[in-house]
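Lab notebook, bench 4. The sequencing result for the construct came back, and we need a structural model before the next group meeting so we can plan mutations. Quick request posted to the team channel:

Model the 3D structure of this chain.
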Amino acid sequence: MSMDQSVIEAKRIGVFNCHVGCKLADAAAIMRKEDISALVVVDDDGCLAGIISRVDLLRAWMNSPGWQNETVQVYMNSEVISVTPETRLFEVARLLLEQHIHRVVVVRTEGDKISPISVVSAADLVYHMANTA
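Done. Here's the predicted structure in token form:
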């Protein structure tokens, strides 16, 4: 992996997501099944609405006896750091470190719609680093 590669050159397109109205129990089941640590949350138009992580699910479990029936919208983070497919990997690494986050969402903007197309995580970067070491 070259740190000068763009996201689109290094990462396959595709994203695991759920709707803002998805129940937390269903989101947890998707994360477990797919062995992922977060889901992108989309609205009715398929536009980026937020992200829900395992930590958010733990917070829900600790704060709400009926957490399973809460929607992801209640516990998701709606302030998502996003990048374009052309963003260089070194810029993604810088964002992860500076923002103290674990992942960024790769988006495509079409008019006023922001559609999630992929996720790049710190784990992805480390995986590529290890493969090229």
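Helices lie at 7-10, 24-34, 54-63, 72-75, 89-99, 122-132.
Will bring this to the meeting.
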